[in-house]
Amino acid sequence: MKVQNKYYEKANNLRFESLYREATASYLNAILIDRKSAESYFGLGVCYKNLGEYEKAVKYLETATELRTKYYEAYFELGVCHQLQGIACGAIKNFVQAIQARPDSEEAILQLGISHEICEEYDMALMIYQKLIENSPNFEKAYECKSALLMKLGNYREAGNVLNGLIKINPEYKSAYAGLGICFEKLGQKNKARRFYRKFLSFDEFSPQTEFILDRFNSSIKKISNKPFTVVK
Q1: Cα(165)–Cα(217) distance, integer angstroms
Q2: In 10 A of CB 111, how many CB atoms?
Q3: How far does Cα 87 stand from its chain's mean position?
Q4: Cα separation of 77 and 97, whole Å?
Q5: Residue 87 phi/psi, 5° resolution?
Q6: pTM of the model
Q7: What's the burial of 125, exposed, middle or buried (CB within 10 Å: 0-12/13-18/19+)?
Q8: pLDDT in tens, 16-71
Q9: Residue 213 and residue 194 in contact, taking contact as beta carbons nearer than 8 Å
C-alpha cells in the first residue's frame, strides 16, 4: 500500500466515524505526499464543513474541483457550504455545476430549487420543484418543498393539490396530512381541516409538529366539544 493511500484510507475511516478533527490531520498528511489528490482535498473540505469551518471547507473543495473536472460530490458540497454561509448565489452556481456533472441527481436539482427560494426567486424555485415532480414522480422531497413554498406564498389551494399528490405516492407521509389540514383551514373548510388534522394525529410517532397541530385541532372543535383530542407521548 502506498504511503499516501495509508493516510488517505485512515482519514476516510475517521471521517466515516464522524471523527472530523482527527481526520483532518491524516488528510493533510496525504496531501503533503500527493498534492494532486482531488479526493484528499475533498475529504478535508467535508471535514471542515462538518466542523463548521466553512471558509476552510470552501478553499479545499474548490481545490478538489480544480484538480478533477466534473467532480459532482465536490460541487454539491460547495453548494451546501455556501448555503450554510448564507451565500445563496454562490450555492446556485455550484449546484448547477453539480447537475452538469450528474444531470440525473435529484438531490442537486432540489438544492438548486431551495437556493433560488432562499434568493426569493420563487417562480424559478417552483418551476424547478415542478420539473422534479414530473421527471421523478416518486421523489417525495420535491412535493414537500413545492407545497411548503406555495403555502408560504398563500396559495393554499394549489399547495393542497401538491400534498394530495404526495399522499397518493406515500399514504404514510405524516406531515402531508398536517399540511392539508392547514390548507383547508386557511381556505375556510373547517370540517376537512379537522379530518386531516385527525389523520395526522392518528400516527403513533410524536414529532415537534404534533403539539402545533394538536393545538389547531382542539381550537377548531372548541365550540362543538368539551373533550379535546390528546396525544400520548
Answers
A1: 23
A2: 24
A3: 16
A4: 11
A5: -105, 80
A6: 0.87
A7: buried
A8: 999 999 999 999 999 999 999 999 999 999 999 999 999 999 999 999 999 999 99
A9: no
